[in-house]
Amino acid sequence: MDIEGVFPEIESIEDDSLRTGVATAWTTAAGVNGLDVEELPQQPWLPPEARPEEAEPFGLVEHVRDVTACAVGLAESLLQRHPDFEIDLDTVLAGALIHDVSKLYEFDATDRTELGELLGHPYYGVAVVSQANLPVEMAHVVLSHSPKTTVEPATLEARLVRRADEAAAAAARASAGASAGQE
Asked: Mind giving me the DSSP string for 43-111?
């Protein structure tokens, strides 16, 4: 399986350099962290201390794909109602796909890494995006997608990814709480 098999949404990115950069970032992150691309769907989205004890860990790939669907849906809905809005769908799509790529460096199945303890995934994500030769707009989406940083989204595309991440995260946490017998 290749990275497009894990994230089929990559194929929808029209810009060749963005499509290649997103694929490179995920493939490199997997390899650096000792994973084959096929193992990505088994990687958890939350660090061990944040996972509900009785619930199945929600997967990173599942979360990223949920955020991507939400962000693209928001963008397309706005463009359908307001065709004059300037929203770059490739930036929304690529940004949503790449927003949590550095979580692979932040923790493993059982513990946080030193990088996770000292830096956190939004900050290290900027390095991952840079190493994949993605443009600064992608680094901004990664850095501003989380309230763990003081960087607010400065573009509409970054705002859409942040809101989509918030919605997808809330839905996953609600589902985990319900399956763990919590409200």
From this structure: SBSS-GGGS-TTSPPPBHHHHHHHHHHHHHHHHHHHHHH-TTS---HHHHHHHHHHTTTTHHHHB-SS-
Residue 69 lies in a domain: yes
Q: What band does 13 get if pLDDT is binned at 50, 70 and 90?
A: very high
Domain holding 80: CATH number? 1.10.3210
In this structure, which amino acid lies at residue 10? Answer: I
Q: Per-residue pLDDT averaged across 100-124, rounded?
A: 89
Instruction: Please report whether residue 17 resides in a domain.
Output: no
Q: Which of 146, 177, 149, 148 is nearest to 163 (CA)?
A: 146
Question: 135-173: per-residue pLDDT in tens?
Answer: 999 999 999 999 989 999 999 999 999 999 999 999 988
Specify the number of domains making up the chain. Answer: 1
Interval 40-53: pLDDT, tens? 999 998 887 777 66
What angle in degrees, to the nearest 10, is found between the helix axes of 156-179 and 136-144?
Answer: 40
Residue written as tokens 């918030």?
Answer: 166
Compute the distance between CA of residue 108 and CA of residue 113 in angstroms, rounded to an integer. Answer: 7
Q: What distance in Å separates the CA atoms of residue 106 and residue 113, rounded to the nearest whole number? A: 5
Q: Which domain holds residue 132?
A: 22-179
Model pTM above 0.85: yes
